Batch of 3 targets.
Target 1
Amino acid sequence: MKKCISLLLAVIMALSVFAMPLALAAEANTGSAAAEETTVKKSPSPYFLIAKGDVEKSDYQRGETAVFNLTATNRSGRQLSALAMTAKKSRNLNGVLMTKISQLTVDNGQKIEVEYQLSTKTVRYVNNTFNAIENAISFLKGIFIRITAFFTAGHTKLITFNIDGQKVYVLVSFFGYDVKDLEEGEVPSTPSEPDDPTNPDDPTNPDDPTNPDDPTNPDDPTNPDDPTNPDDPTNPDDPTNPDDTTNPDNDLVITIDQSDFTTTENVAVITGKYECDNLDTISYEVAPFFYETGSSATGEVIIDGENWQASIPLKPGDNVVSFKVSSRDGEEKSAVVTVTYEIGSTYEYSEDEVDYDETEGVYYVNDVITISFANGTSEEEIDEVIRSINGQYVGVNYIYNSYQIKIASRDYEELWTLCEELEEDYDIVELAYVNELVEEETAVAVNDPWMNDLSEEDWLDDDIDGSNWGLEAIGAPKAWGYANRMSRIKIGVIDGGFSTDHRDLKVNILSKKNTPADHGTFVAGVIGATANNSIGTTGVAYNKANLLCYAYNGTEDAFYDGLAKLVTSGAKVINASQGWGGTHSSRWIKKQGNKASLKIAALLEKGYDFVVVQSAGNSSVDSVNNGIFASIDSSNCKTKTGVSVNDVLHRIIIVAAAKLREGSMISTMYELHEESNWGSHVTLAAPGDKILSPITNNQYGVAGKTSTAAPHVAAAAGLVWAINSDFTGAEVKNILVLSTTEGVEGHPFLNLGKAVEEAVNRTDGVGTLRAEFTDAATGHSISGVSATCTAYSGHSTEALVGKVYPANGSWLETELPAGTYTFKFSCDNYISLIVSFEIKFGETTDLNNISLSKEIGEGQVRVVLHWGNERPSDLDSHLNGRLADGGNYHVYYSEMGSSGLAWLDVDDTSYEGPETITIDMENFTEFTYSVHNYSNRNATSGESGASVLANSGAYVEVYIGTAKVATYNVPTNRMGTVWNVFKMNAAGELTYINTFEYNSNPSTVGYAY
């Protein structure tokens, strides 16, 4: 008998391994955590308790197993069996973690330690896919209940506890015992005869008809037939009951059509449905990545009937997108989907695949070439090209549409010839090239931090000297004076490796691998060493840079993968202190320009804006020989659709190295570093001699040449952009170039102080306000309007609030400092109008037609429609009202209405309005107001014309007597041809409707009474 029982238990345990799930609703747990006290578990006899437990340590690394110790208590002292779960990664059911089961015994000592081993590399953002996980748990739980019931007559319980605020679900089986939750802190009583199943006085006896836990007891709250059971589907209070009119779930629902998915596009189109009777908005938010402090992206979805659609900008990796539907009474519901943006991976070469070409003086991978295909090339066409050279696909970058193809080993010239033949034979091949190894400087001498070298005066006088001479030379302290005007900016660095634990430097590593190296750490430190922390050095960016760093393996393709990863992760400036030594053939220079320009163009084509900053090189030759971006000019620049040669060239900054002129340490005159490259491709010169910066092992080093000059300029570009995020990359480069004050052997020298001042001046400079004034009822021009500034937000020191700007006839045109304004427009016999707008430097803000409505009589209402977009040319006003005598009344262009009821003052058919309707409210019990897109009235769902109304810039103003009581702006995220705007009752009470629908028949537009 005992053998049979043992065999049965063995079978049970084996089956349990496959049936027991553990789902962790959490991202990787890397910090300290503690399991919250769970609800106490009760069984007939003995009692089994799971109490509070703690994590073993607080410094878990990614991928390591975290162990949580929970205490299990046997109150009766009776021995029983329990299960401990060890998390094990599985790809089943979208990544739900399966569990490895081990049996633990609760002995007579009352307590036992139960280890729950939770993998820190958990399901991808499971906490944001709650519904999918819950469904998976329910499914697997059902399987386990059936198995244990068949073999052991046991019960399974879903236990929930928290780790650092994240829910964790654990299924636990208690063989042979019922399981019930007790209130927190409740101590279960021990029955007098717990083992007597026939004892009628045993309150835990499942067959006791008075037992509240008896499932047949009508008073059992868990009885599905109990009318008070909230889970009873016939219970009107059951939240799942569709007939429960008070159930909020019946009023507000949002669903997503897609489950988690992977894409190679940088924008994901996600669709779904919603239910909401009084919809306010449907918005989305992308969870921040580890290098971000706020949301990665936010916005509103496009709503089309009961459907919605959103175009979500993605960053490489897992983008956790939350969609939220909100009602006007404040209720909200959410749904989540994870979109993985895959940009590809680079082939990892081995040392025996690398050869050296003496003619060009470059190292290259001898058995891999890279082919960039034109947009729209099919997989079949790509496969055909690869087969034609007996190649094998080993790597890809989807942003550039470039593929790495492994072929038989060849020498450099043979690879070149093959690439040229592919470009000639296939129109779909935009570029084919040999994958070369990029060189970098590595020598950095150790020196002391400059806090031991400088006194306070070294930051205050005009002497350019000391170990901080480079910062003084570029006017950095002057630029730092505007720090309160700067936002944080992402600056990317591509290099060989970076120190992640330097006390004076914070970096965010975006590459999969990173081996700390002096050169990369030094370059990053010039940009972003922490300022004002009383140690080490000060980075040029003065605590305004969020450093994103990519460590690459030395090949060109790995370098360009880094460029793509950094730009798509939000970096606006990319520093590349890399290149080649010596001189090279014109053919090599042309191909370098082809490669680099095509990469920039591909990123610009996808909507990214940035500048790349590269060192000019250190061979004392023309900088075109340094390759990458330094080789690009108008003759070898390749572009993409919608991207011009100038678009590419205006994003490139090449930097030469300057030093203090020998024998003049207090001079402001500089000369090129003796090893610096030069030439017409050089954009700027910057400090590149005896520069101090952090290196590995918490040390500091001194170095020079162009690798140290480039990060000065990269940080400067970042600070210019930090002043005004609306600048384009081309504008940032232009500001840096135009702000130089002296030359270094024909090369402009960086002046950061002046560049930041120029950025401030352009941001705060004047723009032009322009407006024309018309009568809202007639559309005729009116004069005598005065414009008064009632509010201003900007950086001008001029007293602007209260200032009056008189019109010249029916026109107002005046210059204003950049900023955000509110103006009050007033004219005799007209209702004053308040308008807010923004003035930008060098731009004209045209308010178009400012329509003023004449004062109306007591008991009258006027509705005025404006729109500011040439598309559509004709929007129509529609009033649908219920008259006091019970009749219906529809006013629109075909039924102009009549005096004493409601009438259309003017019907504008050729541009921006206004259209006005005047209503005598004494004759109405209520009315609704709608706007019809007559120009695109036949548009249907999904057609381009269906979005024109939302993009028209339309707004509706409502006046009662002499006061404007409401302004409604058309929502920009809707589709439809009719906008039902608002409802008003006889008491003048407004209700915002804000719904869209499709209607091609003007006579039936609006609410019917």
Target 2
Amino acid sequence: MVLVLARALVRHPGKAILIALACSLVGGGLASRLRLDTNRLALIGDQHTYSRGFRRFQEQFADVDAMVVVLGGAPEAGLPAAADALARRVAKRRDVFVECFARFPSQAPRGKALLFLTPQALDATVQRLRAGKAAVAALFENGLGGFFSCVAGEARALGEGVEAAERGRHTLALLEPFVGGLARALAGEAPGPEPWEGFVPREDLPGDPGGYVHTRDGRLVVLVQPERSQDLSAERRAVSALRELLGDLAAEFPGLEPGLTGQPVLEVDEYQTYRNDAALASAVALLAVTALFAVASRRLLGPLLALLCLLVAVACTLGVASLWPGHLNLISAAFCALMAGLGVDYAVHLVSRYDEERARGLPALPALRASLARTGHAVAGAAATTALAFLATLFSDVAGIREFGFVAAVGIVFCVLVNLFLLPALLVVVDRWRGGERRPRADWPRARFAVLLDRVVEERPGGVLAACLALALASLVLAWPRPGGAEGSSPSGLRYDANLLRLQAAGLPSVRLAEEVLRDPSVGGMFAAVLVHDRSHLARVQRALEALPSVGETLSLRDVLGDQRLKLERIADLRAELAGLEPLPRARAGGERERLARAQAGAEELVGALEQLARGTLLRGATGATDALLRLQEGLEAVVRAARTEGATARLIHYEDGLRRRLRAQFERLREECAVRPLRDEDLPPAIRERFVGRDGTALIRVYPREDVWEHARLERFLAEVRSVVSDVGGVPVQLYESERLLRRGVLRAAEIAAVFVLMYLLVHFRGFARPFAVGATLVVGFAWTAGLLTVCGVGLNPANLLALPLVLGIGIDYALHLVHRDAEARGRPSLAGAPALVATSTGRGVTLSAVTSIAGFGALGFVSAHRGLASIGWTLCLAVAACLAAALLFCPALLRLYAGPSRPLPLEGLPGPKTGPGGAPRKPAEDPPPPGPISD
């Protein structure tokens, strides 16, 4: 078979090249349809119950995945204006935005307003109305003069500490807006806010006054819902448009510091960062690998041919990936950079062996046949084990791992096929172009370091083996996770960080802002969602959740509506107080001069009462109350002076009559509001209903954790406590916990299945147990050393580099497999006796060079990637390759030597002995016999 393949490639290299070119063109054309999917739900898959539940939760409550605008920096008075301006501009862009939430409605529905007040506010309203009834009656009967006289009497009672003192406090609270409005009216200006609003305070719906929502540190929050799409196109347009609007807003409002985050923004930013980093890392990796190959092999065409083969394999792989799964996810997007570090390995081994055979003097065909027969068999075996390791991920229950495993396995298959068929054809063409005379140098077998390694292993295999095992044990002890000490020291060992925000680029503003405000209830992201279908159980469930130690806060309809039974009782008290004012007294007849005189006399009387009350408060040391009373006194004195000016009489009469009319209308509205029934869902404004009531009528309880739940143990404790109250829990914390748990379980399951597949293949491949054991033991030692290196270098595990484990498994097996194959080839028999040199051969050179090029490729991924997840994959693979290479060059030969016993002497030409001819003349090495008959094109 090998001879037939070699003959065909030598006879018709052009056909092999044309076939490869056609395949790469077809693959490249199909690959143009590939897209990058950053949806983490799609990464896990819809086959899981919690994943389907989270999608239903997103459909029920749209603000969960809204873009979050945080406005700060500007003076506090300017933030509401900026939010309103942003809401108006977003409303005009219906092509990219679905809706915008900037504030709760400032007015409650007519006939239901009192039910939106707190019981405490209703109590205060009842007390104010009860205390102000006498002043109101005096105003209607005797005008401003009667009102001032009544308040003066209450002020004197307050100073004397009699029973009416409490009533006096409530009445005096009306004076400041009243006096200000009267002064403006006498000056011919608009009177401003009604003083009677103090009887019934206007409270907006949940949030700060004005209906705006703030973070705990005072910044204002605006939620913007974008259009959704399967390929992020709509979200990308929405994020770009919103950032443009925020730039214009910052220019319009000096000092404004707008920030933007939220799940759609994080996905779009991660998509851009991931795509740019993967493309740049792939390009740098290809250049670095090619340059290293060229320097190590001291030739340029061989590495360039290997690079061409790699590009063909990548194009074909991406073409297959466009058929299934049809996209690249956050895991498989790093495929090109990974293949740059891994796919060139097969070319390194074949070119190294071909150079060795050509350096021995063999012509192209015998050299090609020897390379394919000896090294090609090992390359195919190594590729098969790596592909099996990746295909084992198809048994994972995580969709993203399955997709990555399939794409990687297809990539490995194409790499080995291209290197077994296209690369030999290219080598033949290059040799013919050069005339077949120039032969490459193979200096590696004579390298002192390679010979030294073989000699150390040859002389002390037991010592090398013991040292390797001791270092592996020390690495495992070092990497074993340990909790922090009693003084609060951080945990040690190899740590696992499940925080997905720490996988993204550290400098992204959206990531920094998300880390700051994600747990803030006003932003609403990090909460466990408890859905209550039976409203009668809402209060009981929420009280049970609030009693949990790990729960910091809960929000539901109860916090918006409060206890309606208690509110209805307070409204009944208010209705009784209003009944005591019916009918309102009629105004006493009198001319304008008389009314003005009564007003002046009442104001002067009130000035005196306030002066007396101020002296009393000053003696008691209540300086704050004294200052307030003196301000009222000064305001009233200004009103008295203004009443003596020309035209003041008409303005005062007009203001007095207006007060009566507006107060009468307000009391009529208050009586209407008191005839109220309990609130229903349809009575709630949409901005509130959509946050706490699903589209199917289900009530939502938002359960916020007390601690930062990005730490796995805290998240697990929080969810366990919440599930002890309600079994069906959703929301972002559940999504994080379940997806991370599935990811770890999926990787471990894939690793277990991969180990079984690889072991079975090795048993069949080697037809025995000794060599598979050597390969497997080398892999275990390499894994142990990798764990120690990761711990020492501070590279922890995370959901991104955890997926590199199947690749590490393939790498560790490949290096050992090549050396064991070379060992079996040199022996020429199933026995392990008489092991030859392994490191000081073209195979050792190929293993070392492929490891160095892999480190260069993976290092490029770690060095140039701003995305911390991609960078962690690169650095993890760099350390793993170094550890597996060291295990293959030290542990594997030592294990073979220890098992086989003493070896033959190394072949040293030119010295007397069995390797020399008569007279000490060097005995030439036996060459492969030429093929029977000439081979021509």
Target 3
Amino acid sequence: MSNRFSPLSLMQWMLLCVLGGILVILYVLSSRVNDGDRVSVELKVRQMLTLDTGINLDILRLRYRQLRDYDNVSTAAQQVEILLEDLHDDFRKLEIGHALDIASREWIVKQQDIEDFKRQNSVLVNSIYHFISLTEQIDTRLENERSRPTYEPLFRAITQNVLIFINEQQAQEIAPVLSAIGQLEELAARDGGPQASQGQLLARHGRQIINNHPPVQVLMRNISRSNFPLELERAYGEYVKRHHQMSLEAEFYRQWMAIFTLLMVLTVIWMTHSIRQKNEEIAKSHSLLHNVANHLGEGILSFDDEGRFNFINSRAETLLGLTRAELMHKSIADLFVPEAQRRGTSFREALAGSRAFEGEEWLLRPDGSSFPAGFLGGPLPPVGESQLPAGYVTSFRDLSEHYEAEARLRLSARVFDNLTEALSITDAEGTIRSVNAAFTTITGYTEAEAKGKKQNRLLGNTLYEEIMETMQRENKWMGEVIYRRKNQETFPAWISMSMVRDEEGKALHYITLFTDLSERKKFEAHARRLTDNDQLTGLANRKRFLERLQEVIRQVQQSHRPVAVLILDLDRFKHINDSLGHASGDRLLKIASERLLSLLKEGDMLARIGGDEFALLLPEISSHADAAQLASRILQKFESPFDLGDREVFTSTSVGIAIFPTDGSVPELLMKNADVALHKAKDAGRSAFRFFMEEDTIHSLEQLELETALRRSIEQEELLLFYQPQVSARDGSIYGVEALVRWQHPHKGLLMPNNFIPLAESSGYISDLGKWCLQTACEQLYAWQHTGLPIQRVAVNVSVRQLNDPEFVDMVFHTLETTGLPSHCLELELTESLLISNPERIFGIFARLRERGIRIAIDDFGTGYSSLSYLSRYPVDVVKIDKSFVDQLEHEAEHRSVVEAIILMSHAMGMETVAEGVEFEIQKNRLEQLGCDLLQGYFFSRPIPAEKIPALPRLTRQCTE
């Protein structure tokens, strides 16, 4: 037979190979495109459009001086460039790379316009700044002069027209203004004098403002009206058409793949048909009687007239715990327990009388245990001429479970009336036959009233039918239901129902046990409200928000539809809470939650996940732009004041945004990335929103590692103090030093303050770091003075977070006491921006410090918001002129004038002046001429370790003198 069918088998195998090859080819052709590529391209296009819109907005802000730097525009342009390059790759995959050519050219043109705008707008803004500054200086000089110069009316008219032009971006007549500017240049040059150069410089900047304004406006309009977004949308439309076309082709190949798959399955069926026939023939060769006997659920025993076994089925071996070989050496009498022989009618007596038997006996197992068995048997008919039975055959089954069931019923009957849970017993038709006392208490039905009623009247027909279907399959059912009392009131109940069957497997009774869950439900509902909702605002809490986010992710996981998570908090909330009290802080949180709720649409979710931190879930957005739009509306909503009853306060918010699935596929990761974006928004200056970017996480991890190492820096003795001398402008002697902290990082080397001080500020470690710096600097100066070095004081920098510490002043006093350094030898340096953060509190701190003789210095003066008149309100000893003014001292007349004004007014108010960043001798000479008290910078010495200070040449000469 094998030789006959071998050619046919070879044909089948060849056909299988051909079909398999065709299927592989069809699979490759059907897999060239997928929906994920289209979604990715759409996300890139939407992100580029969002970035382009942001660039246009930032250009407007730069033009109208609402934004001071071009970092955001440059960053966004770089991101568009990267995304455009990625799109070229995606388009080339579909062989339509040319579709992006026009959009690329438009982007190049827009980039050039942006660069031209940045250059010309910078010139315009610079001219405006210098024009206003010169106007103030000339106006002041004119007010102080007794004789008025001839060009004063012309100067007034020019400044008025140019300032109107600056504020309103237009002038009634430009030509007369330009003509007047020319006249001013001629008159100023003719008059001469110290004010001539300033008049000429004023005229040049005025002309620069008027001439530069039109091209800047043109560039701004060209940027905002660029065709790049339209061409990008058009290119995306071509991509969608091409993708749709290739998807239809792939679907065509998949249909053919299904056809060939069916042919391959039919071939396999054909090949296996002969094998199946052969297996069927083998199966039929087994004895029908042997199969039936071995598959019965009861044990079968057959033995001869002497009681020796001649047939045992598999079930009998299992029940008796003996193999067929072991049973062949035994007789039927060996299987009975000894006590059975002393009972009345037994199976053994039936055997002796060759009678049929139906009854129970106890059988032994090899381990000595016994079990009850139900027997049904009779003698075999005689064989041949003999008149005696040829043997005996019987079936038996294990009755252990039946006995256990009866025992359980008896036990149930005993506890029936003592149960605290309601219990009812119904017959096979569902009619109640018995109930216990708890049933009467819970439902109101007495036992007499309950008997005869149908169970479905208490549960409802539909639910009862479902329960019965499950009972027929599994013999039991349990779950929560709605039960009905006698007065028709419904209540929740936990029900457990089981079935009692007879020997044939038919249902005899149903036992129903249930408990009233009313009180438990009330407690659970209350507990759920406490655990799922914020008690102050009534919003969902973090737990409920995460559960909802997980549910939304499951719903959109297949479609990959974007989902947005926004996290925001209230800027300066801690300051408001501490200043006005927790009641006002709670009121502010409630109003903020109400404003946020007013911005949401159906399906969105708002939760309070921390003190002043809120989270928003937007499950139905089409792109990043939707999330950005809502974030913008949130920022606008917070621009109006908050009415706290007795006063109004202003607070802004910052928003971080993460998008599923690009920024995370699980709730915890989305929340973490949104929080990273929130901190990015705060770093951008607050009242802003930012989307999460992957590099933010990398930066956050690096910052976290650096923060961890920083917290161990004091313990590991990695921090160092360098000292920079402050030299007297009068005699060149070293009067004092400024202490500057450095960090000797074990892996990154020596780190400057700008690499870790901001991190210490944000992490709250600045207090410990500042305390260490103060302690070390005081100890060092005390040691120098006791070795004879003539250094009179040490300056130590203090941060705003240190000043906010209620224990700061006491800590400074304690440090002076423990180190032994006199109070007048310590100078605390603070940046001028600190003066406007909390003036009353800062004034109190300064006063306490100065009472003890500690000197107060204002660092970086002239770069912030304060002025000398504002500074006069505070008890300050030293004003430090910022390095930016010193750098331009010989190149910019206005900087020289500012420095001179600072020195003169500081001296008038009894303050000392220190110039920072002195690097050249010409700067030193000029500052000496202007009357500056102390000089500090690289011209004298860089910051150096403490051990190198005594070797400074100036200090050595002082010691010698």
